[in-house]
Amino acid sequence: MVKDALKDILKKSLTVKRLFRRYRSKVGGYPEWGKLLAKDRLFWDKSIAKAKEGPKTLIATNVGLLLPCVIVESLLGVALTLRGRDIHILLCDEFLPACLACEVAWYPKQEKFVEYGPSKDLCKDCFKPAEKMYSSLGFKVHRYGELVTDEEQKTADKISSEIPAAEIGGYKFNGMAVGEHALAGALRFYAKASLESEPRGEEALRRYFKASVLTVFATQRLLKKHSFESAVFNHGIYVPQGLIGEVCRKEGVRVVTWNPAYRKKCFIFSHSDTYHHTLMTEPTGKWENMTWTPEMEADIMRYLESRWYGKEDWILFHDRPSVKMDDIAKEIGADFSKPCIGMLTNVMWDAQLHYPANAFPDMLEWVLQTIRYFAKRPELNLIIRVHPAEVRGVQPSRQPIMDEIKKAFSRIPANIFIIPPESRIGTYAAMLRCDSAIIYGTKTGVELTSIGIPVIVAGEAWIRNKGVTMDAASAAEYFKMLDTLPLREKLDDATRKRARMYAYHFFFRRMIPVEVIEPVSIHPSFKVSFSRLSELDRGGDAGIDVICDGIIKGEDFIYPAERLRNYGQEERKQ
């Protein structure tokens, strides 16, 4: 595995340049659009010439080193061109002092990052390959370095050096949440939920803060030069993507964000904001009035069962999870004859954004206060399943929740049982034996309610506000809900049906399949593959049509899976 190879390399303390070269040897490359378009070159040349006269769409890839972004966004650029959009690209040309590509794992000696950022290493393999690929398609490529004046660079220096570190996270520049994205970027760099224990944390934060201000200046100038109807970019948070969204929204440019979904060959697109926010606020009318059929119920239940093993998903944490209750009880030492309450955590550093609906200031406070509560309820067992992504995710956490629990409790209460992230215990199997579950932000709430398990939500989980969970808006309300436990009954039939309808919407309609994306066994997990350019034009791929109509017309990013049920047959063949 690439991740294991990286760990071995890091142990040898190689320089980041050598480390990165070893890494690049184990991943896929940029799409070879020259070969992909070879059969239809004349048609493509005519299409892009005609599109130059059409409305402008900005694809803000920004960081060319991020292969998944370049693959998807170059594909979108081609598909949108065929539909008459004039595509412009924004790339960082070794200009920003910090960005989304940077991770602390690349820098065994943090002093190098603090002094130079990525300029001495990562930048060398970032801009030029992406710029060459996009230019080969005939797209106009804009560079950060050409958009920011010397005076603006001085202003960015002044702001990023003079604002007190404690005030950076809440800092707003002309009403835009510049500081929030800077802090989220720094936390992502360290893979931690706090910078307090990092000796060079403030210096790294100021690098991300400066990069945030520079991104604002660059984007503002680009939008003044060109009248873009829409802007498309990955995630919608962190640095620099989060700042692109802030400026575009302020200037009235329609924002579209995207992210790889959980199902293979599928992607989530959202209007205006990151999907972390939009999936929480999406009106229930988008799905609750669907005509529900036995076939749809069978499809979603089959898929949810497959998630126990990850057979149909991009990400697989355990290929052979333990699902036997005797083995689970033996491993964690819990007595499942006693009422058990399940608790599912998230990765602490991930998407550290402001969510007004949270009952607690952060996930750690939720975990610690919940343990203190259950310590006073010895008649109940609390089964805490730590998220496997802490150790098996793309960027393993450097602030494990277990360490934080041990700091707060000299002795874990006797009725608290913790399943560590590296355990092979199946999360769903463990939760099935629980009276109910409590969550903060995990998507697992969608699945648990579908199989009838009552769920209490304390944070920003996407199942919140869907009419199937107990949603706490404050700590006091949360503890009142805990006082009702154990519930001793599963969700009623009507609530369970509603949960399954939302699960169907979430996994099959909001996750849009793209047939020309082909899974591969190496990073970045997929590539573009098609025979003729017509497969990307209108009518060639239903998923691409939904995505492009959303970008062009502002239509909902909802794939009509209930009308196009062949996706299920295709998945079963894989």
Strand and helix layout:
Elements: H1 2-11, H2 16-24, H3 33-36, H4 41-51, E1 56-62, H5 67-82, E2 86-91, H6 110-116, H7 127-136, E3 140-143, H8 144-147, H9 150-162, H10 165-168, H11 178-190, H12 201-225, E4 228-234, H13 241-251, E5 254-260, E6 266-271, H14 275-281, H15 294-306, H16 325-332, E7 340-344, H17 363-375, E8 381-385, H18 389-392, H19 401-408, E9 416-419, H20 427-432, E10 436-439, H21 444-450, E11 455-457, E12 470-471, H22 475-483, H23 493-509, E13 511-513, E14 517-519, E15 526-528, H24 542-553, H25 566-573
Parallel strand pairs: 1-2, 1-4, 2-3, 4-5, 7-8, 7-10, 8-9, 10-11, 11-12
Antiparallel strand pairs: 5-6, 6-13, 14-15
Structural account:
The chain has 574 residues and is of the alpha/beta class. Helix content is 43%, strand content 12%. The protein contains 25 helices and 15 strands. It has helices at residues 2-11, 16-24, 33-36, 41-51, 67-82, 110-116, 127-136, 144-147, 150-162, 165-168, 178-190, 201-225, 241-251, 275-281, 294-306, 325-332, 363-375, 389-392, 401-408, 427-432, 444-450, 475-483, 493-509, 542-553, 566-573; strands at residues 56-62, 86-91, 140-143, 228-234, 254-260, 266-271, 340-344, 381-385, 416-419, 436-439, 455-457, 470-471, 511-513, 517-519, 526-528. Strands 3-2-1-4-5-6-13 form a seven-stranded mixed sheet, with helices on both faces. Strands 9-8-7-10-11-12 form a six-stranded parallel sheet, sandwiched between helices. The model is unreliable at 1-14, 22-26 and 567-574 (pLDDT under 50).
